[in-house]
Amino acid sequence: MTSPAHPLPTPIPKWAYAVALVALTVTWLVLQENGIALGHAAETVHEFFHDGRHALGVPCH
């Protein structure tokens, strides 16, 4: 008995797409938050993500 030449594709559960979308959104917030997108709450959010931005190599000032 031989194995098939091409393995069968592994199905991706639908919840994995939702998790990926949330992860991309959070990454975007951490990397791009510069005060424009969030208005008056920007200063608080900026300080919240400040260390994370520098850990990822994104300069912010």
Describe what this molecule looks like in 3D.
This protein has 61 residues and is mainly α. The chain is built from two helices and no strands. It has helices at 14-32, 42-55. Keywords: Membrane, Transmembrane, Transmembrane helix. It comes from Saccharothrix texasensis. The chain crosses the membrane at residues 12-31. This is Putative cobalt transporter subunit CbtB.
Summarize the structure.
The chain crosses the membrane at residues 12-31. This protein has one domain (14-56).
* Class derived from helix and strand content: mainly alpha
Query: Which segments are poorly predicted (pLDDT under 50) over 5 or more consecutive residues?
Result: none
Give the helix level as a range of percent.
40-55%
How far the N terminus sits from the C terminus, by CA atoms, comes to: 63 Å
Biggest beta sheet attributes: none
Q: What is the number of helical segments per DSSP (H or I, 4+ residues)?
A: 2
Strand fraction: under 5%
Question: How many structural domains does the protein architecture include?
Answer: 1
Any descriptors?
mainly alpha, 54% helix, elongated, transmembrane, Putative cobalt transporter subunit CbtB
